[in-house]
Amino acid sequence: MNQILITKKLYITPELKRKKKVYKMNLIISVFFLIILISVYIYAAYDRDKAEGMSKEILANAEAEQIEDKIADSNILIAILNDTTDDGTEAPVITSNPNNSSKTKQQSQSGYTYVTDGKIVIPKLGIEYGILDGETDSVKETEELLKMSPVKFHGPDINSVGNYCIVGHNYRNSRFFSKVPTLVNGDIIQITDFIDNHTIEYKVYDKYIVIPDDVRCTDQNTEGRKEITLITCTDDSSQRWIIKAREI
Known about the structure:
Blueprint: H1 14-81, E1 106-107, E2 113-122, E3 127-134, H2 139-145, E4 151-154, E5 162-167, E6 188-193, E7 199-210, E8 226-233, E9 240-247
């Protein structure tokens, strides 16, 4: 018996064509936006890595400068002690004040002038960064310097009586001040100034969140004590974390 094969002819209607076209367009748009999102993520990761590398370089250069200052002070002291030269004549009189080292001014790629005030170390979080201090303290200057390292936001000279305020970016990873919100009361923060290379330990005593316009955390009424305030954004950037610590 002969087998009869019956096939159905598929009719492509205008409506079906329209749906296929819409589907292709949606697919192309989805792929396009996916590529954009991936590109933005890669660029952001690159930007964070670049900022981290820059901050480490700034700190390394500042610390190298401190070593050079110590060597220079040591050589001056030797010259003072050896007050006669090899031929018996008196050596020139040289005066030295080791505690009067000047911080070298640097310039960012955007043209803003700053000095490295000192460094902040938080052993619990593995944090070690230089603290930058801009020349004008303008908003734009601070925003640019924040891309490089934590920045002095307000207050007296570093490690002086008063409330020394430091602001740092929250990159939502392990960089800059991203982990600062995990600090709790009793944690230790070490601040070293780059004038006499003296380190003071501060103990966290308070932590809270404020709106961006609330700057009461910068108040200088510390009753004669040395305090520091760390400031960084919440993960959604809508508010600010405030970490308060005072000298032990």
